[in-house]
Design goal:
heterotrimer; A alpha/beta; B mainly alpha; C mainly alpha; A: alpha/beta; GMP Synthetase, Chain A, domain 3; 2 domains; 5-stranded mixed sheet; 13 helices; C: mainly alpha; two-stranded antiparallel ribbon; about 5% strand
Chain lengths: ~425, ~375, ~150
């Protein structure tokens, strides 16, 4: 009994410690959702942060963002966009935080930071290594945040980052970035992946590209051009998609790094092939020219079920990479109404697509070899041939990749044909010859 | 008088397992990655094998002197003065381990969870808990560990299972890490990881008999090797070795990376629960064994004032270090490197000396 | 509580809701605290024993104090000390956490409860003079069912 009384008495002394060190109410902290890094004008860094402004009243409408602000007592209207941004030029990340703290009414907290955005200029000048180092050591920023390289400045990118559906900034970006799994036009790279890639002897780092699309192409006048060459829709680089709408942001393509310097960019199609080789590709809609009527197209829904089988020989002078994977597809549309579902014609489609993919992969790997960039992490498979870490590091895979010979074998099958098993031709208009 | 009743097999096993396993949550995986690369997970089997041999000697020693605990055995084997020195060495080592545990816990909490709180506050709460647990006695400690071990193992397994999305088997290759010779060398030296099994010998009077002690020791070492190996394997699968050596607490960072969509993310609080409670119990039992050895050496029967005094000393010494690297590269390195000496070789020496001097066993003791 | 019958229950619940809402709107307490107090209060109804539930409701406030002093770490310390104190207690000579904390032989009833007629031995922790419940060792001997349980 006396022990219990003793314990309780100690507990009653506890309120004197309340909130004196660490405690901070949700009302007193500003949760930063996005961090942007540019080369600064007035100083070395330009740090931009984006955060939700919690302006709606306590629990009033369903468009309320995060948490409630109890002291406002209902009522303050919603801002048009429920987020704010702030930017500062500073010599380092942490000094920048303190400088921003001086101008913000609340204390900054990075515990919910979801995206980190670097500008392309910064990446190309090879300075990212300096900037990523403090972020890795800082325990508040999680290593599961997404990393993007943006064309233009990160400041402009974050200014345009407004959620078009719903008002919650944090939700909209999370869902947006996770779309990589569904379409495959940009990779899903977290800070952990990027950080590992910067230091890795097994391969090089990549990051998703993002851009602001100024919507110029839809303001061009005139009808369709006379000679339309075949485009797959994935050939654009980030920021060049011909589209219009409220949302200016685009996540598209990959940035390739050699060490910590950005050396190249991949367009949408090339990114899909990259993801296929890495085994991260899940599903994507593809288009190809109809082999029997080249002006019309065939659409396919392509999926990668199993990870590719990669064998690497490191014995001789040149490493030999053997790549084998299997793609499955559902037939989505046949514009020419040719009966491709029948077993004689289907191999024709399969062969055509297979050749396209194999050629695409060969070109892609060639491109990456010239840039000394093993974005496919072939080095991880090469490591299986070595017994100790020292042997592997003295082999220097990243340098040897430049000379490697690649053999690609894609196995492509059209498994399902959608809701139709046969196409009957549409009738021609009568009387118009 | 603090009661030290009897407790059974399961409680002893859970107490020992918690005492051994708590250290894998700190910077051990990082240091191991630096020493042997990504092979820590099977290096630990070598350590366990060495520890099992060491435990075999402890068991033989206890079998020779049935019904006595380690402090008394030292006195009989080495004589009055030698026994005092041996108990003193082991006791001092236990105290040093407790200080290191307190320091590690304080520093890691300050890095990851509560960066703004002052050192004395975090260490103060830790020492207050150790104090309360010691005052409540050994039996309560054993029961608490039995109570919590299910939750701790479940939480640990949950974190490992949820981390599956970040595992990449390729991180385990090259399979031999820095070379098989280094793996073997470090495996043997670091067998002190499992050295806490000696608490079964120190508290031999509270257990039911030598036959049970053998069962408990072997089970404890086997369960701990599975847990530690699983933890190290998970760390090696998540981080390649060049990254793993940089991180302050790889297991915590691994828990931070779990992200399954909008709901299941940022779950490292589960991990914190496992870690902190395991560490409290582990530090308390090491501290209590120091108290036990100390009181036996000086023939003190009432432990309460000793507990109070030692806790104050513990608190003072826990605040003495200047920085975290002193702890990781200093104290912990000393414990790992030299730990096998008091823990595993001291009973071996006692056994040899006892058989030379013909004490115990079937020979009737004159004393 | 001391108001008779159904009025008492309803009054209690409505009073709590109104007070909570008013306190939050007035800005006296953060809504988080109200949520936590309400949820833990409701959860304490899951404890079958009235005295134990009441004790938990009292301990709630100690945990809130610990939480405000030292955050999650303080609550964990509180959980540990609380359980350690419970483990050291004995009620009528039987340790408090009996089938779990000291492990005893008969442990059929820890998480799930089996039907009483399947239980053949008395629990170990009460130190009964006779372990078996029936002399023959079979239960429900009076039930004549083709020699399954009966003779």
């Amino acid at each position: 009994m006396r022990k219990i009384a003793l314990a309780l008495m100690i507990c009653l002394l506890l309120p004197c410690f309340a909130s004196c060190h660490e405690a901070s109410e949700m009302d007193d902290t500003l949760y930063v959702i996005a961090i942007g890094v540019d080369q600064g004008v007035a100083d070395k860094w330009r740090l931009t942060i984006q955060f939700p402004t919690m302006k709606s009243g306590g629990g009033s409408s369903s468009s309320n963002g995060n948490g409630g602000n109890s002291s406002s007592g209902g009522g303050g209207g919603d801002d048009e966009s429920g987020q704010g941004y702030a930017t500062v030029d500073s010599p380092s990340f942490f000094v920048g935080i303190d400088m921003l703290n001086a101008s913000m009414p609340r204390k900054l907290s990075f515990a919910h930071a979801q995206i980190i955005v670097f500008s392309e200029e910064l990446a190309q000048s090879g300075l990212i290594g300096e900037y990523v180092a403090p972020i890795g050591r800082f325990s508040e920023i999680r290593r599961s945040s997404h990393v993007f390289v943006v064309k233009g400045t990160a400041f402009d990118f974050l200014k345009e980052n407004k959620p078009t559906i719903g008002t919650t900034l944090s939700k909209s970006f999370q869902v947006f970035a996770a779309a990589s799994e569904n379409i495959g036009y940009f990779p899903h790279i977290t800070l952990e992946n990027f950080y590992e890639g910067l230091k890795s002897p097994y391969g090089q780092a990549i990051a998703s590209m993002a851009a602001i699309n100024e919507m110029e192409s839809s303001s061009e006048e005139g009808g369709p051009k006379e000679e339309q060459e075949f485009k797959t829709g994935g050939e654009y680089l980030a920021g060049e998609l011909p589209r219009d709408g409220k949302n200016k942001l685009e996540l598209w393509g990959t940035a390739l790094f050699n060490g910590d310097k950005m050396v190249g960019e991949l367009n949408g199609d090339e990114t899909r092939l990259l993801l296929m080789i890495r085994g991260d590709f899940r599903q994507g809609l593809y288009v190809m020219q109809d082999p029997m009527e080249p002006e019309l197209i065939v659409s396919l829904d392509v999926q990668l079920d199993k990870k590719p089988q990669i064998d690497i020989e490191t014995e001789g002078e040149q490493p030999i990479i053997r790549l084998k994977f299997q793609l499955d597809a559902d037939l989505l549309s046949v514009q020419s109404m040719i009966h491709y579902e029948n077993p004689e014609l289907r191999p024709l489609l399969e062969e055509t697509f297979k050749k396209n993919i194999e050629e695409g992969i060969a070109e892609l790997i060639q491109k990456c070899q010239e840039l000394y960039c093993d974005a496919f992490r072939f080095g991880e498979n090469a490591a299986k041939n070595f017994l100790t870490i020292d042997e592997f590091e003295s082999y220097d895979w990243n340098r040897r990749f430049h000379d490697a010979k690649v053999e690609v074998d894609v196995d492509f099958t059209i498994r399902r044909t959608g809701a139709q098993i046969k196409s009957y031709p549409i009738k021609e208009p009568i009387g118009e010859e | 008088m603090i009661k030290e009743g009897k407790f059974g097999v399961q409680e002893a096993v859970s107490l020992t397992v918690i005492a051994i396993v708590s250290k894998v949550f700190f910077s051990s995986p990082a240091i191991l990655a630096g020493l042997v690369g990504n092979t820590g997970w099977y290096m630990t089997f070598i350590s366990a094998a060495v520890a099992l041999i060491g435990f075999g000697f402890i068991y033989l020693l206890l079998k020779r002197f049935p019904g006595k605990d380690l402090a008394e055995i030292f006195e009989i084997s080495f004589g009055r003065v030698g026994g005092f020195a041996a108990s003193g060495l082991l006791g001092f080592y236990m105290f040093f381990t407790t200080i290191t545990r307190t320091n590690e816990m304080t520093e890691f909490l300050k890095v990851y969870v509560m960066p703004l709180s002052p050192n004395w506050f975090v260490a103060g709460i830790f020492v207050a808990c150790v104090f309360m647990l010691c005052m409540l006695g050994l039996e309560s400690m054993a029961r608490v560990s039995k109570l919590f071990i299910y939750f701790l193992v479940f939480g640990f397994a949950a974190v490992l299972a949820m981390g599956v999305q970040n595992y990449d088997v390729n991180n385990l290759f090259p399979i031999l890490g820095q070379g098989l010779d280094k793996v073997a060398f470090h495996g043997v030296i670091r067998s002190s990881i499992y050295g806490e099994v000696i608490i079964l010998a120190i508290f031999a009077k509270s257990l039911h008999g030598v036959k049970y002690i053998k069962k408990e020791g072997i089970r404890a070492i086997l369960i701990s090797v599975v847990i530690i190996s699983a933890g190290l394997l998970a760390c090696s699968l998540t981080f390649p070795n060049y990254i793993q050596q940089e991180i302050t607490s790889p297991m915590y960072e691994m828990a931070t990376l779990i992200d399954y969509g909008r709901f299941i993310q940022r779950v490292e609080s589960i991990f914190l629960y496992v870690w902190v409670i395991g560490e409290f119990i582990s530090a308390s039992i090491m501290f209590y064994s120091f108290i036990r050895l100390f009181c036996h050496s000086f023939r003190i029967t009432d432990k309460k004032p000793i507990v109070i005094g030692s806790c104050i000393t513990l608190y003072a010494l826990a605040l003495m270090h200047k920085d975290i690297i002193t702890i990781i590269a200093g104290y912990v390195a000393v414990i790992r490197g030299l730990g096998s000496l008091p823990m595993l070789t001291l009973p071996l020496i006692a056994l040899i000396v006892a058989s030379i001097r013909k004490k115990g066993g079937d020979v009737q003791c004159a004393k | 509580m001391r108001v008779p019958g159904a009025i008492g229950q309803t009054l209690g619940i409505i009073g709590a809701i109104v007070l909570g809402q008013a306190a939050v709107s007035a800005g006296l307490v953060s809504p988080m605290l109200i949520m936590i107090t309400a949820i833990t209060g409701l959860s304490s109804f899951a404890i079958p024993n009235y005295d134990a539930a009441f004790a938990m409701r009292m301990m709630r406030f100690v945990y809130i104090l610990l939480g405000s002093a030292a955050g999650f770490y303080g609550i964990l310390a509180g959980i540990l000390i609380n359980n350690a104190l419970l483990c050291s207690m004995k009620s009528f000579g039987v340790p408090y956490f009996s089938p779990i904390a000291p492990k005893t032989k008969s442990h059929h009833d820890i998480i799930t409860v089996s039907p009483p007629w399947t239980v053949k031995t008395r629990p170990d922790y009460v130190n009964p003079s006779k372990r078996q419940r029936t002399a023959s060792g079979f239960m429900r001997g009076w039930k004549q069912s083709d020699g399954r349980d009966g003779k």
